Amino acid sequence: MKIIDDTVLHSQKWTVLKEKRFLDDLGREHTWTYIERSNQRRAVFVMPITEVSGSLILIRQFRVPFGREVIEFPAGLVDDGERPEDTAVRELAEETGYEGRIEHVGPEISTSAGITTETITMVRMTVGEQPVAEQDLEGSERIEVLKIHPNERKAFLERMIEENALFDAKVYVYLMEQTGA
User: Fold this and answer.
1) Which of 2, 28, 133, 163 sits at a 20 to 30 Å CA gap from 68?
2) What is the number of structural domains in the chain?
C-alpha cells in the first residue's frame, strides 16, 4: 500500500473527518474516509472493581449519536501533558465519585480500526465499596452509576439484553467472559 494524500474534509472541536487516497498492491487507486480525534488525542477507559465485594462499577450514559443510553466503563480523553493513568483517576472521580488505586495499565488499543484512528488505554483500578464524593459532571453529561456484584453479573447481562440495552463492546465482552454466557 502507498498513501497518495490525506485530505481534511471537515474539522470541528472534537473530531476531524479525513479522506486518504492510496494505491493498493496492484497499483489501483482507492479512497478511505475516516474520523480522527482533533489533535490525535488518546482516550482512556477505567475498569473499576470494588476491593471487598468485587463489584464492577459501570455507567449508563445518554449518547447523542445513538439517541439513547449506552452501558459503558467510565472513560475520557487524555489532556495534553497528562498520563493515561492520571486521566483514569480524574475521569473515574468525575463520572462516578469513586476513588481507588491503579492495578494495571494496558497498551494503547484501537477502538474501531476501519472508521477511526482513535486509540484507548484500559486502566484497571481497585476502588472502595462506596463513592467518596458526588459526581462532577459537565453540563451535557447525564450519567447513572451502576454497581454490579459478581453474583449478579449474569442476571444483569441477561436483563439488559432482554431490555435491548446498548452496550459498549468492551463492557459486553468483559461481562460475557466473566459470566461464561
Assistant:
1) 133
2) 2
* 16 and 38 Cβ atoms separated by less than 8 Å: yes
* Whether residue 57 is found in the same domain as residue 29: no
In this predicted structure, the answer to whether residue 30 has a pLDDT above a threshold of 80 is yes
165 and 145 co-located in one domain:
yes
Please, how many CA atoms are within 13 Å of residue 39, restricted to the half-sphere of its CB?
Answer: 10
**Whole domain around residue 14: which residue ranges?**
2-38
Identity at 13, one-letter amino acid code: K
- Residue 29 in grid coordinates: 487507486
- What is the phi/psi pair of residue 129, to 5°? -75, -25
Residues 25 and 83 in one domain: no
Distance of CA 127 to the CA centre of its chain: 19
> Which amino acid is located at 161 in the chain?
I
Alpha-carbon distances, residue 90 vs 83, 84, 181 (angstroms)? 11, 10, 32
pTM summary value: 0.90
